[in-house]
Protein 1
Amino acid sequence: MTSSSTHFHQPVMDDDTLFPDTDLELSFTSTTTDRTFTSSSARSSLARSSLTLSFNESLLSNNNKNNSTTTNAATTTTLHHRKWDPQWSAIKAATTLSSDGNLHLSHLKLVRHLGTGNLGRVFLCHLRDCNSASFALKVIDKDSLTAKKLSHVEMEAEILSMLDHPYLPTLYARLDVSHYTCLLIDYCPNGDLHSLLRKQPANRLPLQAVRFFAAEVLVALEYLHALGVVYRDLKPENILLREDGHIMLSDFDLCFKADVVPTLQKHRVLRSVPTTRNRCGCFGSVDRKEPEEEEVVAEFVAEPVTAFSKSCVGTHEYLAPELVTGNGHGNGVDWWAFGILIHELLYGETPFRGGSKESTLRNIASSKEVRCTVAQREEEGAAEARDLIEKLLVKDPRERLGCARGATDIKRHPFFDGIKWPLIRNYKPPEVRGLVMRRTKSHVPVGIYRKDSYQ
Ligand SMILES: Nc1ncnc2c1ncn2[C@@H]1O[C@H](COP(=O)(O)OP(=O)(O)OP(=O)(O)O)[C@@H](O)[C@H]1O
C-alpha cells in the first residue's frame, strides 16, 4: 500500500505466502495490494513513507535504451568487484546454458513476496537450478504508474546500474518483459535498520552499534556523492541489513544526479607529538607535552557541491530545512539526514518530530538550532556523538559539516576516531538484539571496534 505519499505501511502480517514454483507471470497480476506479506526482512509497520512533491523541476526523460524483451547486466557488466561471488557465479552458470546467453524471467523462481513499495513489489527469488543463490526481484508494472513514477523507475535503474560497492546493491540484471520492468538485486535477509531499532530497548542502539552503522552509511554516501548522486531518502527504513550484518543502502528512485569534479585539496591537520622528557628545563628534568605539529596533507575530495534541485522529495522527519522551504537544495540534504539518522539511532527518535507532519515541518524550518540532551550517565563517546549531530544539523547548509568537502571532513570528526576506514568492511558487525549474522572468517575481532583498541 504505497500509492499515497502520506500514509504509513499497513501492519505486517505473519503470512509467509509461498508462490508456487510455476509460471512467473501468474504472480504478476497486480501491483496494487494493500497487504504487506512479511518475512524476517519485511519492514516494520511503522515505516515512514517517502513523499514526492514537485515544485518545479522538469521530469527526467525516459532514457531507457533497453526496451527489448529482456536485457540483463549479467552479461554486460564488466566492472563489478564481486564478479566471483556465488551470486555472480550462479548467474553466469544460468546464462551459459541459456540459448541466447542472457538471463530470462524463466530462469527465476519466486519464493516469497517481501514487500510493496511506491513503484512495485519485491520478491525473494532463486535461480531455478541453484537454490543457494538468493536475490531480490523488484517487479514494476509500468502500466500502473504515472509519468512521474516512471521517471523514478528509470532513475532507480540508472543509479543501480552505476553502483559497484559493498554497501550498495548490485544490479545483476534488468529484465523488461511486456509492461513489467524487473530489477534483480542482492537480497538482504536481516530486514532493515528501522525494524532492528524497534527491537531494541527504548528503540535505541548502543553507541558502538551506532558508530558502526553510521560509519558504513557514511562510506556509502561518500561513494554516491563521488558519483555525483545526491541520495535524498536516507532513513533507517532504507538501510537494509545483509546476511553478514553489514548494511546495504536501498531505494534510489528519489536520487538526483549532478556534476562532480574530484580534486586533491590541501588541508592543514594537527598531529600531536607524544609526550617527551624535556631535559633543558630551568628546573631540571620535567615532563612536558610538545605542542601539536601542523602538517599539510593532500586529500581526495569528490563532493557534488554545485548540485541543485527544487523538487521536494524525502521523508518528513528527515527533510532538511532548505528542502522544507523549497528554495532549492543540494548535496547538504544528505548530510542533514545523516545527522537525523545518528540522532534516531542513538536517542530512539528524530529531533524535530511534532504531533503532525505539518508541525514536524514547522520545527525543521524554525530558526532554533538542535541541542542534544545530555544524559546523567553517558556512554563513552556520547559527547562526541552529540557534537557530530549538532554540526550536521546546522540549519544553514553553508555552515553544515560535510557540505563543502563531503565525507572527508565528517570522517575526521572525533566520533569516528580510531576507525581505520580502509578496513571498515572487515569490522565485525555489532551484536545487537534481533540481528542474526552469518559468520565470516574475514571479520576483524569485535575488540578492534573499541575506540582505544585500534590505535
Ligand atoms: N534487496 C532486498 N532484500 C530484502 N528485502 C527487500 C529488498 N528490497 C526491498 N525489500 C523489501 O521490500 C519492500 C519494498 O521495497 P521497495 O524498495 O520497493 O519500496 P520501499 O522501500 O517502500 O521504497 P519506496 O516505496 O520509497 O520506493 C521493503 O519494504 C523491504 O521490506
Protein 2
Amino acid sequence: MNTTLPDNTKIRVADLNFFYRERRILQDLTVHFAEHSITALIGPSGAGKSTFLITLNRLWENLPEARMSGKVEITLGGLRRDIYQEAFPVTELRRRVGMVFQTPNPLPMSIYKNVAFPLKMAGGTDQKEMRRKVEQTLKMAYLWEEVKDRMNDDARKLSGGQQQRLCIARALILEPEVLLMDEPTSSLDSTATEVIEGLLLELRKHMTILVVSHYLDQVKRVADRVVSFEEGAIVSS
Ligand SMILES: Nc1ncnc2c1ncn2[C@@H]1O[C@H](COP(=O)(O)OP(=O)(O)OP(=O)(O)O)[C@@H](O)[C@H]1O
C-alpha cells in the first residue's frame, strides 16, 4: 500500500473489488480520504456508491453471495487498522464508523431509548451519564429543543426530518471518527435538508464524512471533495 500519503489520511482503500456472485460491482478502487473532510460520492443509480460505503464498515458481510478483495485501512484511535484483518473486531469498527441510511429507521421505542440504544449495547454506562450523553448528542443533531419535553414518546411519531436527525444522533452517540451517510436528505423537505447540511459542516470538525448525494447543489454546498462513480469505477476524484 502507498505509504507516501499525507499524515492526515483517514481512510485508505487499495485494489478494492466487490462481487455479488460472479458480477463485479466495484472495480479496482484505490482511493483515500483525508480526516475532517466531507467527500460527496456521486454518480448514476447502480454505479456502486452504496456498495462502496458498506465496504468501509463491513456491513455487507452477511449478504448472501457477496464477496470482496482488496484492502481497507482506517486510522482509528490514532492507529492505522486493517479493518478486514481477522483480529480486528467488527464491534469496534461499528462503534468508530457510524452510518446513516437514506430512509430514517427509528427503532420501535421511545425517542430517549433510540438515542441511548448503541450506548446501552456497548455496556458500561450508568444512567446519569447516559442521560447526559443523550442530551448532548441530541443537541449536536439540532433536535434537543424539539424533543426535550417528549423523550418518552414513540420515535416513530416524529416527522421525517426529525426522525433523520434522531438517526444521526443515534449514530453520533458513540462518538464515531467516520460517518457514512447514504443519501441522508433524499426523503426530506428543503428546511430539514438545510438543517442537516448545516449539521454536516459542524460535524466535520470532529470526524471524516462520506456522503452519497444525488443533488449537485447540495454537493456544492457541503463537499470538500467530490468522487464520481460510474459502473463500479471511480472516474474522477
Ligand atoms: N444485495 C444485492 N445483491 C445483488 N446485487 C446487488 C445487491 N445490492 C446491490 N446490488 C447491485 O449492485 C449494483 C450497485 O448498487 P449500489 O446500490 O451500490 O449503487 P448506487 O450507486 O448506490 O445506486 P443508487 O444511487 O441507486 O443508490 C447495482 O447494480 C445493484 O443492483
